[in-house]
Every structure is written in structure tokens, then in C-alpha cells.
Amino acid sequence: MHIPDGFINVPTSAGFGAMSAAWVWYSLRRVGEFLDDRRIPLAGLLAAFVFAAQMINFPVAAGTSGHLIGGVLAAVLAGPWMASLVLAVVLVVQGIFFADGGLSAIGLNVFNLGLVAVVGGYGVFLLARRVLPAGKPMVVIAAGIAAGVSVILAALSFTLQFAIGGEADVAVGTVAAAMVGVHSLIGAGEGLITAMVISAILSSRPDLVYGYTPAMEPTHG
Q1: What is the pLDDT along the chain (221 residues), one digit of tens a residue?
Q2: Residue 51 and residue 42: Cα distance in Å, rounded?
Q3: Are 10 and 180 in contact (CB under 8 A)?
Q4: Using alpha carbons only, what angle is made at residue 90 by residues 87 and 95, rounded to the nearest 5 degrees?
Q5: Where are the domains of the chain?
Q6: pTM of the full structure
């Protein structure tokens, strides 16, 4: 999912980079509304976990590999604003120090993974949480569904960027079919891993899960 240098032209990269910078600035302003002594260490742990998870690739099909994005996982645990900042920091460090994603494409990658995957995925989580019955298991299922969908949303966002300023001589329809097909499989793995992590944390420290409150438990009597 990390876009290399030269794959998207400079004007498109610059435009999406500006939007990403504006989003990071807005997230910095919003995150202060709920930041406390518990969530500051959690943000650091999330950044370390997402960084490590994104460095581990798993085979998908036809020689293609994928990796965890972690956007919905971070959003459910720490809120969408903090999640966007976590993903932005991880992507910048990966691009500068590990050549994972091009330097000119950092804005594109932050837009896809730190904005579309996080905000779009968290929106799916909120919708699923409203539709599903109350209770911790349903929060886990909602997170898993949202995480899977977030990968496809990020893939579609890349397809849009390619349609606007792609440098390769490949039909947009071909790119869209390949991206959605492969990332549907990657999304299944993302959803499963996210659900497992959220389930484990809900079992031991539900107070650390931003997307859960005791009021979501079913009432009896």
C-alpha cells in the first residue's frame, strides 16, 4: 500500500500532501480534547505496534504481499484524531529512514492510510456499532468489519490518485480491479487481527478502548 516515488506525478502528490498536512494540523488541535495521562503512553505503544506490524509482510496471492495498516485498531483504541497522528508519524519515519514509501509520496500515503483508512474505517465502526446489538463482543465484531473495509477504502483512494496523476501506462479499471481484489484478501487479515487485539484489550483493560463505554452493555430487567 506504500506508494513509491515516481508512481504519481508531482502536482497530484503535492495536492494530496497539502490535504494531508491540513488534516494532521486539524488532528493535532482535536486530540487535545481528550488527551490524558493514560492515552499519551497508549499513543506511543500504538505507534510502535503499527510500525512493527507494517514492517511484517504476509503473502496474499500471485506473489503479492500485504501488511497491517492499523488505522481502525488505533482509532478504536485511541480515537480517530490520535490514530491519524500515529499513522502519520509511522509513515514519515518509514519513508525517511527505511525507504518504505517514497519521500515525494509521503503526503499520498498519509492521505490513504492516515486519513481515509482511519476516518473512513472509524465511520464504518460507528455505523456497525449502532446496527449490532449491545455488548463487548459486538464492539469486537464492529472493529473487525471496519478494519477490513478500511483497507479497501485505502485501495480505492490510491486508485483515485492514480486516475488523477498516475505515471504508469495502465488502465484505471485494471488498477482498480487489481487493488480491490488483492486488498479484499488483505482486509480479511486486517479485520481478524484487529478483532483479536481489541478483544484481548476489552477483556483486561476496557477503560483503554476509546470506542467502548460501559453504557454499551445490554440492560437487563
Answers
A1: 688 888 899 999 999 999 999 999 999 999 877 776 677 788 888 899 888 888 776 655 544 456 789 999 999 999 999 999 999 999 999 989 888 888 899 999 999 999 999 999 999 999 999 999 989 999 999 999 999 999 999 999 999 999 999 988 889 998 888 888 888 988 998 999 999 999 999 999 998 899 998 776 776 54
A2: 14
A3: no
A4: 120
A5: 10-216
A6: 0.91
Going by DSSP bridges, is the β-strand pair 64-66/58-61 parallel, antiparallel, or unpaired? antiparallel
User: How many C-beta atoms surround the C-beta of residue 102 within 10 A?
Assistant: 18
Report whether 130 contacts 145 (CB < 8 A): no
Copy the grid coordinates of residue 2: 506504500
* Structure letter (DSSP) for residue 114: I
Residue type, 90: V
For helices 80-97 and 71-78, angle between their N-to-C axes, nearest 10 degrees: 140
Element (H, E) at 58: strand 58-61
| 8 A C-beta contact, residue 108 and residue 17 | yes
Contact status, residue 65 vs residue 2, Cβ threshold 8 Å: no
CA pair distance 26, 171, nearest whole angstrom: 35
CATH of 10-216, one of 1.10.300.10, 2.40.240.20, 3.40.50.300, 1.10.1760.20: 1.10.1760.20
Instruction: Tell me 110's DSSP state.
Output: I
Half-sphere exposure of 91 (CA within 13 A, CB side): 33
Instruction: Map grid coordinates 492499523 to a residue.
Output: 70
Buried b (16+ CB within 10 A) or exposed e, 123-132: bbbeebbeee
